[in-house]
Specification:
This protein is of the alpha/beta class. The protein has one domain: Transcription Regulator spoIIAA (2-Layer Sandwich), CATH 3.30.750. The protein has a 5-stranded mixed β-sheet with strand order 1-2-3-4-5, sandwiched between helices. Helix 1 packs parallel to helix 2. The protein is globular, with a radius of gyration of 14 Å.
Length: about 130
């Protein structure tokens, strides 16, 4: 059965930081497409052997359990491709609660920070030795 992607994302490099912006409510296809897009970017070349991830979920509405598990596979692959540190920007108390199990798992694999805003997240990533501009 074919179905459409629910939710959107954008990815771009900002120095040594992969900025990921998530919007809408995600199904599995959104996570699968995120991972496929990241793989294409990694194949084109990483900016540095160790890099960071800024996950901006200010406009994200959550996702299905399957979407979250597939997002976790993306994160594990990030680590395999040199991810050093990740900072999430999560303003919603509800999303903080939903994402807390993933945040705990992420902190076991990479330096982890939850930023209050984009500037805070970038500043923390810079403190980890990453170029953010």
């Amino acid at each position: 059965m074919k179905y459409a992607q629910h939710g959107e994302f954008s990815l771009h490099w900002q120095g040594d930081v992969l900025v990921a912006r998530y919007t809408g409510t995600w199904n599995e296809l959104a996570s699968t497409n995120l991972h496929a897009t990241a793989k294409q970017m990694w194949a084109a070349g990483l900016p540095a052997p160790a890099w960071g991830l800024l996950s901006d979920v200010r406009e994200w509405g959550g996702g299905t359990p399957q979407a979250l598990e597939l997002w976790w596979e993306f994160f594990e692959d990030c680590v395999q491709h040199g991810l050093l540190a990740v900072s999430d920007v999560v303003p919603s108390p509800m999303l903080k609660l939903v994402l807390s199990p993933l945040a705990k798992r992420a902190s076991a694999l990479a330096h982890y920070h939850r930023g209050d805003n984009i500037e805070d997240a970038l500043q923390w990533l810079a403190s980890q030795g990453l170029r953010t501009g």
